[in-house]
Amino acid sequence: MTAAKDGDNVKVHYTGKLTDGSVFDTSLEREPMEFTLGQGQLIPGFENAVIGMVVGDKTTVEISPEQGYGPHISEMVETVPRGDFPPDIEPEVGQMLRVTQPDGENLVVTITGVTDDTVTVDANHPLAGKDIVFDIELIAIN
Predict the structure, then answer these.
(1) Which residues have C-beta within 8 Å of that of residue 17, sequence separation ≥ 6?
(2) Residue 112 has pLDDT above 90, yes or no
(3) I need a labelling partner for 76 at 20 to 30 A (CA). Which of 45, 58, 106, 141 fits?
C-alpha cells in the first residue's frame, strides 16, 4: 500500500475537538475533505498527521497552538466605541464580522464583549492558543 506523502492529493474524514471533548467541526455528515499535502492549505499539525498514512488508516492527534492556529495574541483584541458600529448592526458576543482595514485588507473578527458604550473584538482565529484534537481517517490518495 502507498503511504501519503507531500504532493499527494488526499481525501480525509475528520472530527476536530477541543481537549475537553467538545466538537468544533466534523466532515462525517458531508463529503470528505480534499487537499494536497505540502501546500500549506491546512494547519501543519493536521498535514503532518496525514503524512505516512495509508488508505483506511485512522489516527487521533493532539495539536499544540504552534502546530495549529498559533498563539492567542493580546494585541489583536481591541475595545472600540459602540458608536463606531454601523447602526444596522446589533453587536452580540460570538458574532463574527468582516472588517476592512485602512490598507484595504479584509479581516474577520469575533465579538467577545459588549457593554452599553463599547464592543470588544478579537482578530485572532477562534482556535488560537488552544490545544486541539483531530480524529482523522484517510479515505483516498489520488
Answers:
(1) 23, 24, 132, 133, 134, 135
(2) yes
(3) 45
